[in-house]
Amino acid sequence: MKKIAFAFLLLFSLYSCKESDKKEVKAETKKEISDLSIYNLPSKWTTQDGKDIELKSLRGNVLVMVMIYTSCKSACPRLVADMRDIESKLEKKTKQHVKLILVSIDPNTDTPERLKSFAIENKMNQDPWIFLRSTEENTREFAAVLAVNYKKISPIDFSHSNIISVFNPEGELIFQQEGLGVNNEKTIEAINLEAGKI
Amino acid sequence: MKKYIFILTIFFFSAVSVMKAQEKGMAFIKEGSYVPLYGAVSQKPVIVKPFYIDIYPVTNSEFLEFVKKNPSYQKSKIKGIFADKSYLSYWTTDFDFGNANPKSPVTSVSWFAAKKYCECQGKRLATMDEWEYVAMADTRKVDARTKKEFNEYILSWYEKSRTYENEIGKTFKNYWGVYDMHGLVWEWTSDFNSIFLSGESRKDKSTDKNLFCGSGSVNASDLMDYAAFMRYAFRGSLKAQYSTRNLGFRCASTTKPKI
Q1: pLDDT at A16 over 70
Q2: What are the phi and psi torsion angles at A151 (to 5°)?
Q3: Cβ-nearest to B194 among A22, A147, A150
Q4: B98, CA 20 to 30 Å: which among A58, B89, B186, B221?
Q5: How many distinct structural domains can be found in chain B?
Q6: Contact, B232 vs B41, CB < 8 A?
């Protein structure tokens, strides 16, 4: 009898794709995540403190996101500087509703430990900064959502788009700033406006 | 009695999986290396590890089965973040692909939907290198890219319209036993968003300018570059939510397919 049960369990596990999907749909409708929200993504991420999170846990904040890798010598330091510049110009009153997030495109190298030391080095190991990494596949997917292109060009180097993305508290993309060292007035305006609504 | 039922059940399911295996056949691709025409900074060969790839692109009827089991990927239910408005645009309802041929490739699917479909089969999308590696074979050679007729065949397809209405398996069977890499539809790859055709991509291909400004003779390698350039430029223009009528997909797998 046990054997039969086991065999059936096995069979069902083969078709589990369908099952899990249904559960997902239920959870989504309960919380009413909007159609265009990144909180529809089920991927799990790890912070620089080794904490595992889903993007959903960031809901309710304005998110400013950029994709980088820590061993990068050329564009990323400037992207990080751009992020820092944005942070310094945020409205003081509403700043607590904003998270600035750096997502690694090189999860193999950028372990949580590595992200942690990068954060400390760059004096970004405190609120509102968050560093995230996930699997290569989740990273590829997240980049696809952000319309960020990247490609490994050597064991330690990537080429990548320089895009800073702003999400409203519901996880919908509301603004993108493209390029390095560009005028960030509009980006900051968009962030402050959204954060002011909270 | 119980044992008898048990054996029958097992027998039934294994019969089903054999049937499925035939339907969803995959070809084994041996490890090899090739020099990509685009996307490589250096002219060094890229190693392609052994893998399996679907012999045919995914069809309308196969995709219908998938959306039946996965409601969130149905035409009316898919979320905007996973597909734009043209998702399955030629389907009349969630469960009806209209007057399209059941054996024609499913198109107007977003990258997210294609990816999910493959995951549900226990597979994945092919990488761009894997796809290009399989696609450079003609009927006889692993790498036919320097053959004039091969390139002319590909380019003549690029000029034809509505080939997506054709059935799968009507183009040539290539060296690996794979059909429809050229001549039917364009296909999604897992890392389509690793292309740079402007700015940062200057280094991708030093001879871009030669493609359009070449005067006089057009030789085989020009044609070959042009065909590849078309594919890379197309991929470079895509976003993961996009879906267009001439873009379908097929799945790949690193390990031997189970079902």
Answers
A1: no
A2: -150, 135
A3: A150
A4: B186
A5: 1
A6: no
In a domain, B98, yes or no: yes
Structure tokens at B137: 């074979």
Nearest CA distance, A126 vs chain B (angstrom): 31
Query: Given a cut of 50, is residue B16 above it in pLDDT?
Result: no
Helix, strand, coil share (%) of chain A residues, nearest 5: 45, 25, 30
* CATH number assigned to the domain comprising residue B232: 3.90.1580.10
DSSP state of A152: E
State the DSSP code for A55. Answer: G
Residue A156 burial (CB count, 10 A)? 12
Chain A contact present for B39, CB below 8 A:
yes
Domain edges within chain A: 1-32, 34-197
* Chain A residues closer than 8 Å to B194 by CB: 149-152
Q: State whether A159 and B196 contact (CB < 8 Å).
A: yes
Locus of tokens 């997030």 = A101
pTM of the model: 0.82
Q: Do A22 and B71 touch (CB under 8 A)?
A: yes
* A34-197 CATH fold: Glutaredoxin (3.40.30)
The pLDDT of residue B19 is above 60 = no
Residue B72 forms part of a structural domain: yes
Whether residue B17 lies inside any domain: the answer is no
- For A28, the closest chain B residue by CA position comes to B72
CA distance B157 to chain A (A): 28
Mutate one of B69, B72, B193 to test the A interface: name it (highest A CB count within 10 A).
Answer: B193
Residue B115 or B236, more confident: B115
ipTM: 0.79
CA B233 to chain A, closest CA, distance in angstroms equals 13
Give all strands (DSSP E) within chain A, no chain letters: 44-47, 52-54, 62-68, 98-104, 129-133, 150-154, 157-160, 163-167, 173-178
Residue B194 lies in a domain: yes
Do the chains contact at B240 and A144, CB–CB below 8 Å?
yes
Find the domain containing B208 and state its range: 26-253
Kindly report, residue by residue over A41-73, the tens digit of the pLDDT: 999 999 999 999 999 999 999 999 999 999 987
Cβ of residue B200 closer than 8 Å to a chain A Cβ: yes
Q: B69, A159: Cβ pair inside 8 Å?
A: no
